[in-house]
Amino acid sequence: MSKTVVTCALTGVLTDPSQHHVPVTPEQMAREARAAFDAGASVMHVHFRRQEPGMGHLPSWEPGVAADITQAIREACPGVIFNQSTGVVGPDISGPTACMRQIRPEIAACNAGSLNYLKVRSDGAWAWRPILFDNPVEKVKGFLDVMLETGALPEFECFDTGIVRAVGMYARTGLYRGHLDYNFVMGVESGMPADPELLPILTRLLAPGATWQVTAIGRAGIWPLHRRAAELGGNLRTGLEDTFYLPDGSKATSNATLIEAIVRVAREAGREIASPAEARTILQLN
Fold first, then answer.
1. Which of 99, 207, 242, 249 is most buried as measured by Cβ atoms within 10 A of its Cβ?
2. Which residues of 228-244 are buried (b: 16+ CB within 10 A; e: fewer)?
3. pTM over 0.90
């Protein structure tokens, strides 16, 4: 079976470093990235955080912060593929696009459709104020234009089946021309569940020749989902952005332990792990 590309999602957008072992500073990011790289990750999916003391739980769109983190990771991990997060609520995309122009990532997340981002506690109350993660077509086009300008491959983030289908429409209308790379985001409470049985349906919706991966969010059921993705030929992703839990239910204290676990899952499914050079070929980055 084909080799699989492994992505490490290092830190996430709002995970509090005072509560969880997520890296924030360039030095921390580089150290975590190197350990994940040594464990088999060829791609680092990166969110930038504010660097002032006590503010590391908040996102940063300062190009200088992006440059410092990117340089530290690239120096620590020769040949690594850099994947920049871009998600923002509202129409102003100047922050993430300024960072893209500054660092020129090989891949950039392109959230391909809108989602009511919701979660309900066990007592029936909202876990947070309901949020519309708005990604209308004109916003998607704005990101795609800058990705074309900077040479970044869009990784189309799909939170539901309709969003998967919309990606094909972007290609058919000429909104995007190039290799299609899908990311099925599964486990967000108001999006697709982390259900392995959905994968055969989702893969039937892919454009011909596309690559795909799964982002599995949460705790229960995500490791069987990773295994099914590996069995069906998908690329794989994990990291402290996505989960804090290893297959045995214990809590992960680093990104590297999660990457080691997903590499084992891949090999048990008959897949081998792509090197950074092989990953570039698979994703058509060369």
1. 99
2. bbbbbebbbbbbbbbbb
3. yes
Cβ atoms within 10 Å of 183's Cβ, excluding its own: 27
Question: Residue 260: beta bridge partners?
Answer: none
Integer Rg of the chain from CA:
17
Domains in the chain, CATH or no CATH each: 6-282 (3.20.20.70)
Residue 132 per-residue DSSP state: E
Distance CA 266, CA 268 (A): 5
- Other beta carbons within 10 angstroms of residue 94's beta carbon come to 11
Q: Which stretch of DSSP H or E encloses residue 102?
A: helix 94-103
pLDDT of residue 108: 98
Cβ-contact 163, 112 below 8 angstroms: yes
Closest CA to 76 of 41, 24, 6, 27: 27
Nearest to 156 by CA among 198, 211, 93: 211
Q: Count helices and strands (H / E) in the chain.
A: 9, 10
Question: Cα dist. 125→131, 182, 189, 190, 217 in Å?
Answer: 14, 33, 14, 15, 21
59: β partners: 49
- Residue range 79-127, pLDDT digits in tens: 999 999 999 999 999 999 999 999 999 999 999 999 999 999 999 999 9
Structure tokens at 153: 């491959």
